[in-house]
Amino acid sequence: MPEPELPWPLLRAVAALADAPLAEIAERLRDALLPTFGCSALVIFTEDCTGRPQKKAGAEEITSRVSIAELDVLRGALPDEAPWQGEADIAGQARQVLALRHGPSNALLVLTDPKLAEPDPGFGLLEYLWDLTAKRIREKVADAPPSYLLESRAASAERVRVTAELTDLHSTTLETLLAALRSNALDDATARTTATNLAAKALVALRSYSDRTTDLVEEPVVRAFERLREDLRPLTSFSGIEVQFIEPPLNGRALPGEVAHAARAIVRGLVLAMMEQPEVRRVRTQWDCDGENLLINVRDDGGGALTTDDRGIARLDRRVQALTGQMRMDVMSGWGADVFVSLPLDLPTRPPGDVAAWNLAARELEVLQLLAAGHRNRTIASSMGISENTVKFHVRNLFKKLDVGSRTEAIALAHSRGMR
């Protein structure tokens, strides 16, 4: 019998999406949707991925300007989980959008300027691919591989820096405006009062935006530990092995998102490895914080069969090293294994260093300095008197020489060498 004709382009796109790394998942989803749901840009907003809550593909004038505040407002306005079409403020102006919220994770998908292949194409394919994407993001974040942790930490550092700079800039501007409008040199009391109220509201909104961004970057230690307890609850219910939880102090310092994800993944891995040993009846996990590090201790009461040569333990150690942490295992025959993990909460600080080892050409170094200062390609091109395509050429060379995969990683590495 002849083989049935299958939609191979679509199936290949689905396979590529299912295997996509987080850094490429927005581009892969856009490729899969493009034949049926064209758009000028595709934006994903997810709070599961604290290091990079926005994942974007498409027109740079949209992807470089869309804000968390705009996406948060749009998500809150969606009536349900069904696809919604309408007008929303995205990247600083009103645009036509097609938006869809993922119920289990509350993630948001936005297609700007949607172009439908048919007047009424149906949304089954869109909902299926979006569900697959949202679940893929959750799985990748929960696993917290070293590559994700490194990218997440670099992205967190850059967003915190940019947000802090924007907050300082706009706060100073608005406070100056308030001081001027309160001046006795202005006679129009009504205008001054109105302007003062507007500026005061703008300051409150700006500070609220800053707090919202911080909420996305960090997770309270108690909440992070409770999520760990939920992750391990099935094991405590069906394994027959007692899992004890020693909770962190209530006033413990909030954890950066990448540290919270890594901590849960590491403890899950350790508990599973310990429970696979014979004669284990009890596993205890404890979190603490000394103000600078998250301190993790996981201990079993088995016969001491676990070793650092175990493949699973080595994989967990790589996750610890990705965050410049330390892991130590003490094993005593007949008494079980005792594992200690320390994860620093702050980004490692290094004095300004020599960049000669990167072997950068003069133009490449200039581009890197402008990148580190927060400039986009268009601004860099104007500043250096070159085309945007030439800037992109230099940026690609920088990625290779610095051994990084994104602008964020390049900027974070430049900052670690003292470039600002």
Summarize the structure in words:
GO terms for molecular function: DNA binding. This is Helix-turn-helix transcriptional regulator. It holds the Pfam family GerE. It is a single chain. The model has no long low-confidence stretch (mean pLDDT 82). The protein is globular. Strand 13 (326-332) and strand 14 form a beta hairpin. The protein has helices at residues 8-18, 25-33, 60-63, 68-77, 124-143, 146-181, 189-217, 221-238, 257-275, 311-322, 362-372, 377-384, 388-402, 407-416, and strands at 37-38, 41-45, 54-58, 84-90, 93-102, 107-112, 115-116, 218-219, 242-246, 255-256, 282-289, 293-300, 326-332, 336-344. The protein is α+β, with helices and mostly antiparallel strands and 420 residues long. The protein has 14 helices and 14 strands. The longest helix is centred in the middle third of the chain and has 36 residues, at 146-181. The strands form four sheets. Strands 3-2-6-5-4 form a five-stranded antiparallel sheet, with helices on both faces. A five-stranded mixed sheet has the order 9-11-12-14-13, covered by helices on one side. Helix content is 50%, strand content 19%. It folds into four domains: 8-143, Beta-Lactamase; 146-218; 221-344, 2-Layer Sandwich (Heat Shock Protein 90), CATH 3.30.565; 356-416, Winged helix-like DNA-binding domain superfamily/Winged helix DNA-binding domain (Arc Repressor Mutant, subunit A, Orthogonal Bundle), CATH 1.10.10.
Key terms:
14 helices; 420 residues; 5-stranded antiparallel beta sheet; Heat Shock Protein 90; 5-stranded mixed beta sheet; globular; alpha+beta; 14 strands; 19% strand; single chain; Beta-Lactamase
